[in-house]
Amino acid sequence: MKVNNLENFWMPFTNNTDFKADPRMIISAKGMYYTSSEGKKILDGTAGLWCVNAGHGHSKIIEAVTKAVNTLDYAPNFDFGHPDAYELSNRLSMQFPININHFFYTNSGSEAVDTALKIVLAYQRSRGKGTETRLIGCERGYYGVGFGVISVGGMVKNRMYFGSLLSGIDHIRHTHGSIKNPYSRGEVEHGAKLADDLERLVGLHDASTIAAVVVEPFATSTIPYSFMMKSSPALAALAL
Q1: Residue 152 burial (CB < 10 Å; 0-12/13-18/19+)?
Q2: Would you say 30 and 57 are in contact if contact means Cβ atoms under 8 Å apart?
Q3: Helix (H) or strand (E) holding 36
Q4: What CATH architecture applies to the domain 16-68?
Q5: How do the domains of the chain map onto residue ranges?
Q6: Would you identify the CATH topology of the domain 109-180+190-230?
Q7: In this predicted model, what pLDDT tens digit does every residue of 164-176 receive, in sequence order?
Q8: pLDDT tens-digit series, residues 89-130
Q9: Long-range contacts from 206-210, C-beta under 8 angstroms, 24+ separation
Q10: Which positions ≥6 away from 26 have C-beta within 8 Å?
Q11: Average pLDDT for residues 136-157, to the nearest whole number?
Q12: Contacts of 169 (CB under 8 A, 6+ apart)
């Protein structure tokens, strides 16, 4: 498949000028591999962007999606419901600890975290804690690309072009960059000072003003490339 015009699609997180000068086109995928327009097999080491973990073209997924589209391709959740949404919620509740048993569906990670921020602010107000509005994120934290999530996020290039963003935001120090972190097993001995950094902000603002702290239990896109080169040249090559 040949594309004759590359001007109308604006690619995210991409130098569009460079890409259009030397396009890298993927035309199909199966299992763990993409196929380029030149017929080259490319290992999908990141499962798309962490969204096709079972592999591409999985027969059971194709069958399930086809059945769903043929039965009910879409139904709104505004004053209407459909059985599958409730069935999925019930199954999810059995996979999580007993106190995690309510679910709100979104279309992306950015929308999910933005919605979580709104939920926590509304929750604090509904229980009479209207002063608890401050949100704390992490330096180098990546939570998405909406205004709320880039405000609590800590990636410089995601924030620098968009003015003051949301007010009432603060950040604790990041967890990357320590040579002690790679390939550690179990609970590491270091890191208590990072928890102390949160206590410092609580002391600065008072706990009665803080609505939520946003952290990443596992981070990938925020790891600086120079750190990957020190810890794993192979990982750095995969990132390129």
Answers
A1: buried
A2: yes
A3: strand 33-36
A4: Alpha-Beta Complex (3.90)
A5: 16-68, 74-105, 109-180+190-230
A6: Aspartate Aminotransferase; domain 2 (3.40.640)
A7: 899 999 999 887 6
A8: 999 999 999 999 999 999 988 999 999 999 999 999 999 999
A9: 208/129, 208/131, 208/132, 209/131, 209/132, 209/133, 209/134, 210/132, 210/134, 210/135, 210/136
A10: 34, 35, 36, 37, 42
A11: 91
A12: 134, 135, 136, 137, 151, 152
Average pLDDT in the chain = 86
Question: Which amino acid is located at 158 in the chain?
Answer: N
Two tokens at 82? Answer: 């459909």
Average pLDDT over residues 195-219: 89
Give the alpha-carbon dihedral of 167, 172, 178, 183, to 10 degrees: -90
Rounded CA separation 237/72 (Å): 43
pLDDT value for 178: 59
Please tell me which residue, 190 or 31, carries the higher pLDDT value. 31
Structure tokens at 207: 């706990």
- The residue among 143, 136, 165 whose CA lies nearest residue 221 is 143
Q: Enumerate long-range contacts of 22-26, CB under 8 Å, 24 or more apart.
A: 25/1
The structure tokens listed for 203 are 């002391």
Q: Would you report the helix, strand and coil content of the chain in percent, each value rounded to 5?
A: 40, 10, 50
